[in-house]
TrEMBL record:
Transmembrane segments: 65-84, 104-120, 132-152, 182-203
Keywords from the UniProt entry: Membrane, Signal, Transmembrane, Transmembrane helix
Protein name: Uncharacterized protein
Domain of life assignment: Bacteria
Signal peptide: 1-17
Length: 549
């Protein structure tokens, strides 16, 4: 209700604002009157602009600045969308389409969104500087000239006139004129330039970043790539996992234990455990052993739970790398067909498909928390309760003796013997009661611990086969990943020399005329050998790529 009241108050303030014009609005209207008197603007333009200034000045905060928030949100959202879209450019399966770039240009060209989209993930210093410069300039021009935009949005000719009117929102009145110039140049370079040159920029992009993957240089220099490093980590994980499963199986089958680290190993501690065991008919000793066993099984469950989480993480990562390898295979076979098609007239017209592997999801048991909220040493003879009960009984006996002494004036030997017998019975009864309570607590604790042991064994029984199923799936997928990675390396080594000879560096002339199909180079023996090698590599690559997991 409070929030609703505040909103109503704000709305009322928007509609019932003081009708007195601000100094800025009055100066603006004075400027318009002077321009009208000098016949520099028409009466229609004057009336429209004057009405806009007065309407804007009489609005409340939200009425004035709603468009400011909308525009800033639009710029930020388009920046985020363009950034997300550019992520795909690192590992493309097909050449980048100029129409995709035109789509980005359509909603973000003024601040250079299409330039950001093309070069965001690649080291292009000039493009990086220009895209951020465009983005910052658009924001600054809009923020510093917001009032002028709201005054004259439907009379743009008035932006050419500038006086000392906007001092509250900019350093000098000349900034409005400079801002108009900045927008003009941004429009010319980003919007008009993008409209004209996007096809050429797309051609350059595909030549530099589609035909030449960012890992090609590492492959040609014999360095490891991301997939190699991941496979090394995965292999180490599987190896350690195998050893850990073997150890856990041994611990479970051979009744290993983990002793309580706080166990009292002193002589007195041993004596207490001995008498406690006698009092509970051996149950306290059994409880200690069962808790040591549960401690071991709980540790095994924690290890298995961690192994499952790590293996699931590796499974997700392996799937991502496998899909990247499938994309690379599709791209490389496309490039092979493109290059061979320039030299040979007859090539297969069969369209290849981008293979998508099935994500392996293994059913695993839910995580369990093992252990109990007590230690075996916590369950012991309740000495405080025993002494309190005996003390109360003794106090009652002494009070009875005192009362008899007051009444009879003398106590016999038999009275003292009777009091002693009563005290002894009290000690015996309370001692037996506490021993029975100790026995009951120990038995109940054993039941709880045994239940936890059974649950832990059941979890281990389900977790180990699940992890082993994951291991088998990971090994199969990793074999395909390694094979595809090796084929990718072989392809790059076979393709790169031919690419440099046929396509070379992208130039505007090559963009206009394309690649000649009949060249003397194609007839040389070395070139034909290299081409035949590429064809053989591509054929084997295609066979490996057809392998499914």
């Amino acid at each position: 209700m409070y929030l609703l009241g505040v909103l109503l108050l704000l709305l009322c303030s928007c509609s019932s604002a003081d009708k007195t014009l601000s100094e800025k609005a009055e100066k603006t209207i004075t400027m318009l009157e002077n321009l009208q008197k000098e016949n520099r603007i028409s009466d229609v333009t004057f009336q429209k602009a004057r009405e806009n200034v007065m309407k804007y000045d009489h609005r409340g905060f939200f009425g004035k600045y709603w468009f400011w928030f909308v525009f800033i949100a639009y710029v930020i959202i388009t920046l985020v969308v363009t950034y997300v879209e550019s992520e795909e450019n690192l590992d493309r399966a097909k050449p980048l389409s100029k129409w995709k770039v035109y789509l980005v240009w359509l909603y973000s060209s003024l601040w250079g969104g299409h330039i950001f989209f093309l070069w965001n993930k690649h080291n292009n210093t000039l493009a990086s500087i220009w895209k951020w410069l465009s983005f910052i300039m658009v924001l600054l021009v809009f923020i510093f000239n917001y009032t002028a935009i709201m005054y004259f949005y439907d009379t743009p000719g008035l932006f050419a006139f500038y006086v000392t009117t906007w001092s509250w929102s900019m350093p000098s009145s000349y900034l409005l004129n400079y801002s108009v110039e900045v927008v003009r140049y941004l429009f010319l370079i980003n919007v008009v330039g993008g409209l004209i040159f996007i096809p050429y920029w797309t051609y350059v992009y595909n030549a530099r970043y589609f035909r030449q993957h960012y890992e090609n240089d590492k492959i040609l220099s014999g360095k490891s790539v991301q997939a190699d490093r991941f496979y090394n980590r995965l292999s180490a994980h599987i190896k350690s996992l195998t050893q850990e499963l073997e150890d856990i199986n041994k611990y479970v089958e051979e009744d290993y234990i983990i002793e309580d680290p706080d166990k009292d190993h002193s002589l007195w501690g041993g004596v207490k455990r001995f008498f406690k065991s006698i009092a509970t008919l051996g149950n306290s000793s059994k409880l200690e052993k069962e808790m040591d066993r549960l401690r071991l099984l709980g540790s095994c469950c924690d290890d298995l739970s961690r192994d499952i989480s790590e293996t699931e993480m590796y499974n997700d990562e392996l799937y991502d790398y496998l899909q990247k390898s499938r994309v690379a295979a599709y791209r490389n076979l496309y490039l092979s067909k493109e290059l061979i098609g320039i030299i040979k007239t007859k090539i297969s017209s069969e369209q290849q498909k981008l293979l998508v592997d099935e994500f392996k999801l293994i059913e695993v048991p839910a995580n369990m928390a093992t252990g109990v909220a007590f230690r075996a040493s916590d369950i012991q003879f309740n000495g405080d309760n025993f002494l309190s009960s005996v003390g109360m009984d003794m106090d009652s006996t002494l009070q009875n003796l005192g009362s008899r002494l007051e009444k009879e004036g003398n106590l016999s030997k038999g009275d003292f013997i009777a009091a002693g017998v009563e005290a002894g019975l009290s000690i015996a009864i309370n001692g037996i009661a506490n021993i029975v309570d100790l026995y009951s607590q120990t038995k109940e604790a054993r039941r709880e611990v045994q239940q936890q042991i059974n649950e832990a064994l059941e979890y281990i029984k389900k977790a180990i086969p699940a992890i082993q199923s994951y291991q088998a799936a990971l090994l199969r997928q990793s074999e395909v990943l390694v094979a595809l990675t090796q084929c990718n390396k072989a392809f790059v080594c076979a393709y790169e020399p031919l690419r440099k000879q046929i396509f070379g560096e992208p130039t505007f002339w090559k963009y206009l005329v394309g690649v000649k199909k009949k060249q003397e180079l194609f007839k040389t023996t070395d070139f034909r050998k290299d081409l035949q090698h590429l064809i053989l590599v591509s054929s084997e690559y295609n066979k490996v790529n057809q392998s499914k997991v």
